């Protein structure tokens, strides 16, 4: 019952409420799908925190195919593909200036593969590998010159001790 109540607001949100795009962006940030770790990976090293991303379902009224939401200035806010009533193929999130903020590949509605996060200037900031929406493999943070400053290995969503 509790899960159904949590799903109802998400379905209503995805059915077309005015704050859809900003809520999606905030939700994606909260889920860890946007690996733009301005805070660094320090918080993710806590053993009790599993890094996973849920499947984002959409209402029946949302048509299948490419979905693009834009900022008031006309730049893309995010882009994805709706397939089987969920986000599929990929989710790209953009900064208001139009620069790609993150790219996360999706397979069968789940994060799968190398997700990349970028700075507002378009420089690679972080990468993380997902398998069936759970962090599995390397997560890296890069400095402004592109040098790796931190690497964390995840297994089944949990950071492993070095």
Automatic annotation (TrEMBL):
Keywords per UniProt? Signal
Query: What PROSITE patterns does the record tag this protein with?
Result: PROKAR_LIPOPROTEIN (PS51257)
One Pfam family cited in the UniProt record for this chain: MORN_2
The residue range of the signal peptide is: 1-21
InterPro entries associated with the record: MORN_2
What name does UniProt use for this protein? Toxin-antitoxin system YwqK family antitoxin
Q: Which organism is it from?
A: Leclercia adecarboxylata
Lineage of source species? Bacteria, Pseudomonadati, Pseudomonadota, Gammaproteobacteria, Enterobacterales
